[in-house]
Amino acid sequence: VQLQASGGGLVQAGASLRLSCQVSGRTFRNNAVGWFRQAPGKEREFVAGITMSGGSTRYADSVKGRFTISRDRDNAKNTVYLQMNSLNTEDTAVYYCACTGGSIGVPIITTYYDYWGQGTLVTVSS
Q: Would you say 7 and 17 are in contact if contact means Cβ atoms under 8 Å apart?
């Protein structure tokens, strides 16, 4: 399984961005794709996740109501999106997408994710 994240950039506070994670390789309905972020000097933290079936989603409290994770309905594309609205400076980080090898639901701990994409930088200016 390979993942390719894209969509980061520099925006002002209050703006929106949409990140994309292209997932290639063999995946199953019980795989989960998660978005994590890591700010300078901080540990990598869970942001949002979705099962490949699209049936379950999960969000960190800090992004609930502002971020939305979704999966492209076109199965051939196998893309997971993270729509980020009302961005603030605390959202500045490198964002990574990752995929589990198989799981129940959407884990929030990094060790449950076996495959990682490269990061994409999101910078929110005040």
A: yes
Pairing state of beta strands 79-84 and 17-24?
antiparallel
User: Are residues 3 and 32 in contact, defined by beta-carbon separation less than 8 angstroms?
Assistant: no
CB-based burial of residue 28 (10 Å sphere; 0-12 exposed, 13-18 middle, 19+ buried)?
exposed
DSSP state of 22: E
* Largest Cα–Cα separation, the chain: 41
The residue among 91, 82, 85, 93 whose CA lies nearest residue 121 is 93
User: What are 75-97's pLDDT values in tens digits?
Assistant: 667 899 999 999 999 999 999 99
Length of the chain: 126
Q: pLDDT band for position 35 (50/70/90)? A: very high
